[in-house]
Specification:
The complex is a heterodimer of chains A (about 350) and B (about 300).
Chain A: E1 2-6, H1 12-36, H2 41-49, H3 51-54, H4 58-84, H5 92-110, H6 118-144, H7 148-168, H8 204-222, H9 224-234, H10 236-241, H11 246-270, H12 284-294, H13 299-322, H14 329-344, H15 346-349, E2 350-354
Helix pairs in contact in A: 1-2, 1-14, 2-13, 4-8, 4-9, 4-11, 4-12, 4-13, 5-6, 5-7, 5-11, 5-12, 6-7, 6-11, 8-9, 8-11, 8-13, 12-13, 12-14, 13-14
Chain B: H1 4-30, H2 38-56, H3 59-73, H4 75-82, H5 88-107, H6 127-145, H7 147-157, H8 159-164, H9 169-196, H10 207-217, H11 222-244, H12 251-254, H13 257-275
Helix pairs in contact in B: 1-6, 1-9, 1-10, 1-11, 2-3, 2-5, 2-9, 2-10, 3-9, 4-5, 4-9, 6-7, 6-11, 10-11, 10-13, 11-13
Classes of the chains: A mainly alpha (about 350), B mainly alpha (about 300).
């Protein structure tokens, strides 16, 4: 018989090894799934994980990597800070949508004015919008004890409907021949978020994601607030006795992750997406949860995990085109990845030992 | 003028998916497990139930298949939380994401086909509606009057004490998780087989999350779950009525009503539970905590 013995600390090697093991296990389980569905498993895995980077059409798909990774990393950096403290913001998708709307609102209000101030103002508006949407569950939690998990999640559905209302109502393009959706911000130079260096896919969101990684690293490992967050996550009672107010942390973490998600939404709507439609939210807010866990809630890990999950998005699209795999394949992959990740996490918290039979 | 009786019957139908899912989650949470995967289990039930009903032509077989599929898809969650001591919040989220993906992946072949007709029971209501109403006293009786229910509550209230008394905490919890999955599956299948009559991706639209909120609202009791489900059935029916009546409010804003109502109710009930000064209201003592027997 084997038994599990709790570890007092985790070897650094295991911290790095478990996410890699989880990715490998996901590839194997995914391969089995493809085989069941009647596809060549090896070809499918290669299409998803290899071809976007090194395949025949890689020059087209490689820039997409940064485009897709930027919102994931931006959102996950914020989420991970809260997750460290046991504050579960799972409504980043809603904060992303609201940020896209408030950011786009600035541009649509300013149209057709030109000026250097417009884009920065949009970024601020996006961050404020996301922050405000994140503060709703924070304040309802702090004042009334309502679960931030459920409130933040409910607000995703509310945000989706606000986006639909905007696309069909107040923000509808007056020159859009009655089609739903706002003006295309890509065609409005003062508000557009274009590719900064041709061929890289890097737009301002990529810059912001890089800054977010640096900033959250600094926060978590060099700043007293980060220390409080970690303390509250490991020993909530001890942290309270040390003077850490849980209410402050809840407001800070939900506000921060909301603001980052809101900015991600703005960069997307001003750049790759271009306009407010009823389908502004494409699930980045949920995938970012997986990114945060895969990155072990560490800024550098999140950077790598964001790139990997961006790869699965692009690979999934490629597999849709070349192998006729359904679009949902990637979703299943991502779900399985989180399952395996959580499972292998056991190795970091427990040591496997032989049971000594007395 | 709308006939109040007809409106109540509509409410009964509209509340059924959430009633099933929330009753299932109630049992799971009373066993001390927080499963945030309700939405995922519901959508898997919605698809497998619909597909089974379509292929066999028998809606009741569809519901049976949905119960089985719901319990089966909850299995990874059970393994993760009960054997691998994974965080229940994260594992539940994983189950939801996995379930949504799985249903979307395997749902393509039945897109656009129509469900077989159901034979309605008394008062022109679907038999499943009656089954749901019957489950309320059944689960109340199980939790409060049966020996097995007492053990289940003991496991949920204090798993270390239950373990010390010789009860198998894991086995009780795995059974509860499977039951919760089956109930969520039936709830999801009600949406596809009996309400919408077809399969569309993401059709549960947050019903699983509303069910989770209702369990909090119910103060972890079966009659409370019924009250919560009716409240949301009522809001849904009212919202649809207002849409049909052509109220001058955009459809998208009206359709927010169930989600906003959930938040409002959650806030109100949490505030009351907070005032009652009982830590965590009447939530089971071991809710959401890992159980690891050292001996």
């Amino acid at each position: 018989m084997i038994r599990l013995v709790p570890r007092t600390d985790t070897p650094a090697l295991l911290q790095i090894a478990t996410p890699i093991l989880a990715v490998l296990a996901t590839m194997i389980a995914g391969g089995i799934l493809f085989a069941i569905m009647g596809h060549d498993p090896v070809a499918a895995i290669r299409t998803i994980f290899w071809d976007p980077l090194f395949g025949p059409a890689a020059s087209y798909s490689r820039p997409q990597l940064l485009v897709k990774a930027a919102p994931l990393i931006l959102i996950a950096s914020g989420l991970a800070v809260g997750f460290r403290a046991g504050i579960w913001n799972i409504g980043a998708e809603g904060q992303y949508i609201i940020g896209a709307i408030t950011g786009a609102a600035v541009a649509l209000a300013a149209y057709p004015a030109e000026g250097m101030w417009i884009f920065p103002a949009m970024v601020i508006a996006g961050a404020v919008g996301g922050w405000a949407w994140g503060m709703i569950p924070a304040l309802l939690g702090n004042w009334f004890g309502a679960s931030e998990i459920l409130v933040s999640l409910m607000l995703v559905y509310v945000a989706q409907r606000i986006a639909a209302w905007m696309a069909f109502g107040p923000m509808k393009n007056p020159e859009g021949f009655g089609m739903p959706g706002s003006r295309n911000l890509q065609q409005y130079p003062a508000a557009a978020n274009p590719e900064l260096v041709a061929g890289t896919g890097a737009h301002w969101g990529v810059v912001a994601a890089a800054l977010a990684v640096l900033a959250t690293w600094f926060l978590m490992s060099r700043h007293i607030r980060g220390f409080h967050i970690r303390a509250a996550g490991i020993a909530p009672r001890a942290a309270r006795f040390a003077g850490v107010k849980p209410e402050t942390l809840v407001a800070f973490c939900l506000g921060l992750s909301g603001a980052l998600a809101g900015m991600a939404g703005l960069f997307e709507v001003a750049g790759p997406a271009g306009q407010i439609t009823d389908k502004v939210g494409v699930g980045y807010g949920f995938t970012a949860i997986i990114v945060a866990f895969l990155g072990r809630l560490h800024p550098v890990g999140i950077l790598l995990a964001g790139l990997l999950l961006a790869l699965t998005y692009i690979g999934g699209e490629l597999a849709q085109l070349t192998m006729n795999l359904p679009a949902a394949t990637v979703q299943v992959f991502q779900g399985m990845l989180l399952f395996f990740l959580l499972g292998f996490d056991l190795l970091t918290r427990y040591r496997i030992a032989r049971r000594i039979t007395a | 003028m709308i006939d109040p009786v007809a409106l109540f019957l509509l409410l009964l139908s509209a509340s059924t998916p959430i009633l099933f899912a929330a009753l299932g989650e109630l049992v799971v949470e009373r066993a001390g497990v927080l499963n945030l995967g309700v939405e995922g289990m519901m959508i898997v039930g919605a698809l497998s139930g619909f597909a089974a009903a379509y292929h066999t032509g028998n809606p009741f077989l569809g519901f049976a298949a949905a119960a089985g599929a719901g319990a089966l898809v909850a299995l990874p969650f059970a393994i993760l939380t009960q054997f691998l001591m994974s965080n229940q919040v994260a594992s539940g989220l994983a189950l939801t994401l996995f379930g949504l993906g799985l249903a979307a992946l395997f749902g393509k072949p039945v897109e656009g086909v129509k469900a077989p007709a159901m034979i309605s029971g008394p008062l022109g209501l679907n038999w499943i509606v009656w089954l749901g109403l019957l489950m309320v006293p059944a689960i109340w009786w199980f939790l409060n009057r049966s020996r097995a229910g007492l053990i289940l509550r003991g496991v949920g209230e204090n798993h270390d004490a239950a373990h010390a008394l010789g009860y198998n905490v894991r086995r009780v919890r795995i059974a509860a998780i499977a039951f919760g999955g089956a109930m969520a599956g039936v709830g999801g299948a009600f949406i596809s087989i009996a309400t919408v009559l077809q399969w569309t991706e993401g059709m549960t639209a947050g019903a699983g999350w509303i069910a989770l909120a209702i369990v909090v609202f119910s103060n972890w009791t079966a009659p409370g779950v019924l009250a919560g489900a009716w409240l949301f059935g009522g809001v849904t029916v009212l919202q649809l009525r207002l849409q049909a009546a052509g109220v001058r409010v955009p459809v998208q804003l009206l359709s927010m009503a169930p989600y906003l109502a959930t938040i409002i109710v959650l806030v109100a009930i949490s505030a009351r539970q907070k005032l009652s000064r009982r830590a965590g209201g009447t939530a089971p003592g071991s809710l959401g905590q890992d159980f690891h027997a050292l001996r």
